[in-house]
Design a protein that fits this description.
Elements (H helix, E strand, L loop, with lengths): L26 H10 L6 H10 L5 E4 L6 H13 L9 E4 L3 H14 L7 E4 L6 H10 L2 E4 L1 H9 L10 E4 L2 H6 L3 H9 L6 E6 L4 H10 L4 E4 L10 E7 L5 H8 L8 E4 L3 H13 L4 E4 L5 H13 L4 E4 L1 H4 L9 E4 L6 H8 L9 E7 L4 H11 L50
Parallel strand pairs: 1-6, 1-7, 2-4, 2-5, 3-4, 5-6, 8-13, 9-11, 9-12, 10-11, 12-13
């Protein structure tokens, strides 16, 4: 299972098919596609599906929001349509539970007119239902690496019938430290299988992984890895770090910002920002690694349905945010890694729509923004909001008797004690 990806004939983006009728898919799957609302396949779908349905290994590179999930789910379903139930036939590995749930939701709709069943396997919830799915309750398993290994250590996961493996968001799995877990899982799978690897970027570790575990893969590259999602308008807003939340509140006075995804660097900051937004009467929710799965699902669903206007998220949690109509992405903190910016802004302008990405950049974050500009190959325009005060108010002195007022130390005479300075040595 070695050899570099076959890049012959793939230097240019694949031409789009007119409709899904032009792709080699069973009528049952086309019916599911139509019910979801897909009409025209995206380039990654057009480039992947004809090769994948023949059983060929695939390396697919495309930015987020370009239809990668359907690009691998449809050929997986096509190849398994004639297979019997009750055995694990396909495994899809993904870095976060949100992405696992997202893929399982797509699978359920696409496979609605077939006998094939899917099940998500991820941490943070009980293992009972997942164990039943792994024991034969589903033919397609969508799993995060850590939780799948937990089940595998218990000895009841049988991959002997596995025919297809998909590594989704491979670059992110490496960023999150999953490479050792991924290797342990792959070493336990049948060698005679089809493997598809999808990634928004192709760092050297992902290339090495493809060479080790894929056989003569077809490279389907629909965009340069340095290009952010098409349809995104980028804008940088220079502002002192201590005024960022105030500027965010100012921006949210614009009622055209109907569905706003705000990225914060840490869990504590995400919680703090969410509380401040709610204090100012803005319907906001938060998702990050310390929130329970039920809390994250409720917040994401409320954001998707419009009950929440703003969702504050950390990068890891936001990988599963698949909401069609995110009007704006706001980078409250500039990411240290330029590729993270590409993933963030890809949450808007999905499915060939348009969206806006605002980045609040403090002076110390300018070097990070410069690296982002080099990666995406463009200079992000900078502007100042005219009705916002960029001068931080000076704190008022503490009032006598207030909580921060410290009375002077007084000696026995009752007069304030004044130090005469350091004592001299005799």
């Amino acid at each position: 299972m070695s050899g570099p990806p076959d890049t012959r004939g793939d230097a240019q983006p694949p031409a789009e098919a007119g409709t899904f009728e032009d792709l080699p898919l069973h009528p049952k799957l086309r019916r599911g596609v139509h019910e979801i609302g897909y009409r025209v396949p995206t380039p990654i779908q057009t480039g992947t599906i004809p090769h994948a349905v023949t059983g060929r290994d695939i390396v697919g590179t495309a930015q987020t929001g370009t239809g990668k999930t359907a690009a691998f789910l449809l050929p997986v379903l096509e190849r398994l349509l004639e297979e019997p139930r009750g055995r694990i036939l396909a495994l899809i590995l993904t870095p976060t539970r949100e992405l696992a749930l997202q893929a399982e939701g797509f699978l359920r709709k696409l496979a609605g007119h077939t006998h094939l069943r899917g099940a998500p396997v991820y941490g943070g919830v009980g293992m009972g239902d997942q164990e039943r799915a792994l024991r034969g309750g589903a033919e397609i398993i969508i799993a995060t690496p850590g939780r799948l290994l937990d089940h595998m250590r218990r000895g009841y996961v049988d991959f002997r019938s596995l025919r297809i493996l998909v590594l989704d968001e491979a670059d992110r799995m490496l960023d999150m430290g999953f490479l050792p877990d991924v290797r342990r899982i792959l070493d336990r799978l049948p060698r005679d299988r089809q493997t598809m690897l999808f990634s928004a970027t192709m760092p050297p570790e992902v290339v090495a992984l493809s060479r080790q575990f894929l056989r003569d893969p077809k490279l389907v590259q629909v965009a340069e890895r340095t290009v952010a999602a098409v349809g995104v308008s980028h804008l940088a807003l220079p502002v002192p770090a201590q005024l960022k939340v105030g500027l965010l509140l100012n921006l949210l006075e614009d009622q055209t910002m109907t569905s706003v995804l705000v990225f914060a660097r840490t869990k504590h900051r995400a919680d703090s920002v969410c509380r401040q937004l709610e204090h100012h009467g803005i319907r906001a929710g938060v998702i990050h690694g310390n929130r329970s799965q039920s809390q994250r699902v409720r917040a994401l669903e409320a954001f998707r349905t419009g009950d929440l206007r703003v969702l504050v998220a950390t990068d890891i949690a936001a990988r599963g945010v698949d909401v069609k109509d995110v009007s704006h992405v706001v980078n409250l903190d500039v990411p240290h890694e330029p590729e993270v910016y590409v993933h963030r802004v890809g949450r808007t302008a999905r499915a060939q729509q348009r969206g806006d990405a605002f980045t609040l950049v403090s002076p110390e974050e300018e070097p990070d923004l410069a690296r982002i500009e080099r990666l995406i190959g463009m200079s992000i325009p900078r502007t100042r909001i005219p009705n916002f005060s960029y001068t931080a108010p000076r704190p008022a002195p503490p009032a006598p008797g207030g909580p921060h007022h410290r009375p002077p130390f007084r000696g026995r005479s009752g007069r304030p004690y004044r130090s005469a300075g350091p004592r001299r040595r005799r």
